[in-house]
Amino acid sequence: MQKFESINRAYNEVFQSGRLSIGLVVPIENYGQRTVPTMQHHLQRVKLAERLGFKAVWVRDVPFHMPSFGDAGQTFDPFTYLGYLAGQTTDIALGTASIALPLHHPVHIAKSAATIDHLSEGRLLLGVASGDRPTEYPAMNIDFEKRGELFRDTYEYIRTAQKEFPVLEDNHHGQLTGHMDILPKPKGTKIPMLITGSSRQTMEWIAEHGDGWMYYPRPMMQQAYTIKQWRQEIAKHHDYDKPFMQPLYVILEKDEDFKPQPIQLGFRIGSNYLIEYFNQIQDIGVNHVAVNLRFNTRDTEATMEALATKVLPHFNLKTKEKTP
Fold first, then answer.
1. Which one of 32, 206, 207, 239 counts the least CB within 10 Å of its CB?
2. 3-state SS string over 201-248?
3. Which residues are registered as beta bridge partners of 194?
């Protein structure tokens, strides 16, 4: 089995070939009946997630609150917030899921991402996407129909900016001539960039350029086929493998043998069946799952403790390889 690249501390510890790790989506609270979370106890819960052994926390990029969309995310600016969390934690990976690349100038993303990577001692995972909220684009005078092209250009700019005195021509966002630099540089070999969904790109492009793939929960056989296809594409371009991750909405029942009932992008489920599901997706090649407790009806801290006690011991193994 091919191994993954060694990139930074977060990437190397969260993603292990053939293994599944578990993280949490921020905000870690129940706001299923609202579009805007309270963000109460948010820092305490991130610190608790770290103490309990969750591998990562994931924040989203939601520039505008649109009630019709149904979710304002964590409301805080993702980079400012991760900078704050970097100073309040020591081990847990800090991920974005995901930054809508066409809605930002890439030099700002490159500088912010590298800054957080340094402040956190290499704990940043940069999930990126093309964005899927059409009304945000005219609000920023950006053509929604060009988001696929803008995504590629922004991605290329960010990756190039991580080099010394970068040179880049024919880019929507400007030219880099090699006569000035963008600092700081990443803590590891580069900023790990994981592509979300299709981001208006082909599977081949994602396999060649991304450092990993974030995809949505799908029926087991469909997900297994997708992962197999993607890894076949990776083998055409690289002599190493890349991680696959997915989110999962979870309503954790007190009854450990509660049989799974489907909800949107997840399950109402007991811990024993959740372990079974996680083992199944681990077997088909999923390397990380970001659990979202937005619709969970139990006490949040009690749910986190239950997951840590019952579920995490089967997964989230300690990293065996050295990190840069």
1. 239
2. CCHHHHHHHCCEEECCCCCHHHHHHHHHHHHHHHHHHCCCECCEEEEE
3. 127, 212
> Token pair of 275, please?
């372990």
| 320 found inside a domain | no
State the burial class of residue 291 (Cβ atoms within 10 Å of its Cβ: 0-12, 13-18, 19+).
buried
Residues 6+ apart with CB under 8 A from 139: 64
- Decide: pTM greater than 0.85: yes
Write the pLDDT tens digit of every residue in 288-318: 999 999 999 999 999 999 999 999 999 976 5
Calculate helix-pair angle for 78-88, 106-119, nearest 10 degrees.
Answer: 10
Q: Is residue 67 part of a domain?
A: yes
CATH (domain of 91): 3.20.20.30
pLDDT tens for 72-97 read 999 999 999 999 999 999 999 999 99
- Compute the mean pLDDT over every residue in the chain, rounded to the nearest whole number: 95
Domain assignment of residue 229, yes or no: yes
**Lookup result for tokens 């969309």:** 69
pLDDT at res. 318: 59
Work out how many domains the chain is built from and give that number. 1
Query: Which domain range does residue 217 map to?
Result: 9-314
Residue 300 buriedness (CB in 10 A; 0-12 / 13-18 / 19+): middle
CB neighbour burial string for 103-136, b if at least 16 within 10 angstroms, e if fewer? bbebbebbbbbbbbbbbbebbbbbbbbbbebeeb
Inside any domain, residue 322: no
Beta carbons within 10 angstroms of residue 322's beta carbon: 7
Spatial distance between the Cα atoms of 280 and 155, rounded to a whole number of angstroms: 33
Spatial separation of the C-alpha atoms in residues 56 and 49, rounded to whole Å: 8
